[in-house]
Each structure stands twice: as C-alpha cells, then as structure tokens.
Fold this protein.
Amino acid sequence: MTSDVNGDGATGGPKGPIRDALRPSLPKRFYKEALRVPAAGGGCEIHLDGRPLRTPMKRVLVIAGEPFADVVLSEWQAQADVIDPASMPATRLANSAVDTVADNRDAVAAEIVAYAGNDLLCYRAANPAKLVALQDEIWNPILAAVEKEIGARFALAQGVMHTPQPHTVFEAVASAIRNLDHLQLAALQLITTITGSAVLALAYLKGIVTADEVWAAAHLDEDWQIAQWGRDEEAEARRAARERDFRAATAALANWH
C-alpha cells in the first residue's frame, strides 16, 4: 500500500525542483553603480554606490594598479541579478593579496620556491619519442631563458623519481621574487600552483613568454593525452575553471614586464 507523501494524491519522490542543499544561494546584487576611484594612500578602490569594496576580512580592498583595478571593476559591473564569486577570479585574487599575502609574505614566497624543487619543466618523459621531442622543443627554450635570467641551472630528470635541485636554484628563485608587491606575489603564486611550475611563472613575470605560451606549455602533457585518447567533459570543465583563475593572475602581472 502506498502513501500520499505529497498531500496531493500523488506518490513517489518530490515533484518540484530539487535545490542543492550543499550549494548556498547566491546573494542578490545590492548596488546600482560600481566605480574605480583613487585610494587615499595610493592605488585604487572599487566603490559600490559610493562605498568602498571590502575584503572577506572587512579590510578596504586597495588595488595597486589601474589596469588590474579595471579588471576587478568589470567583474562587479558584469554581475546581473546575483553576485557569483565563481565569475570573479580577479576579485578573489585581489582579496587574497590583501587578506592573505600581506600577512604571510614569507610563507607564500616559500611555497613558490618549493615548487622550483619539483618543477614541471624538470621532469621529462622517457617515451614515446614524439612526446620527448615535443617537451624538448617547447620546454627547453623557456627553461634556458629563465636559467639565464636568474643565474642558476636546474637539474633535469626522466620519469617521476625525485631529483634534488642545487641550492643555487632555490636562492635564485627567492631573489627573483623578493621585491614583488602583495598583488604580484599573490598572482605569481597562483600561476605557479595552477601550472605546477615556478619556471613558467617566472618566465611570464620576466616577459620571456606570453600568457598563452605559459598555458600551452603547462598543458603539453595533458594535450598530448587528449590527442591520443580524446576529451573528457568533466576534465574540460575543471580546466576551464583553472584557466579563469590563471587569466586573472596573468592580468595582475601584465604591467610588470
């Protein structure tokens, strides 16, 4: 015997739309106008209906340069009925610079330096021959240019067995990022973690390669696998989300070159 669980004479599961209980509802857009204005101590602020935008830790969000401030501004202007943080990677990065990096510069810099010890560009395939040749073609010039720029040589390895880097590599990478401001350091750390390569992050920072070249080099192995076995929709969605964050980070460093 069945029961009328819906009170409408019907049985079975819910008949209305099911809402994902694990995903909180997005806040409604509460402002009419978003503007970029000069900050009193230098840099820029984003004002929503005349009030300065604040970080999650309630600090006034001050952005070092006008070009990146305009990227953040465009995200706030683009919000429609609700505010979706997933569509605002530049804002998240700017918040991170103020709330996290400013208070933890040494730890953030140390994380970038640590990536140099296991850098993507230093671990090469042993086979197949075409992949080996492609890695050499794309990665070798970037690695050589960064080595020349920072004055240190990286050790290369085949396969996944850990190969220690000389101390001169860690010292050189640390020196190369020492004078970055909070936003630049936050952006470089994000590029490093997304690509798995401090070398690629430094190559972009120093103007050796473009953002597109960094992205292609970081996904060389993945694109090789796609060419052999085809695409995966879930993997592509994750990659698209990473690329949004990556593009925000490269925008933050665009005027450093």
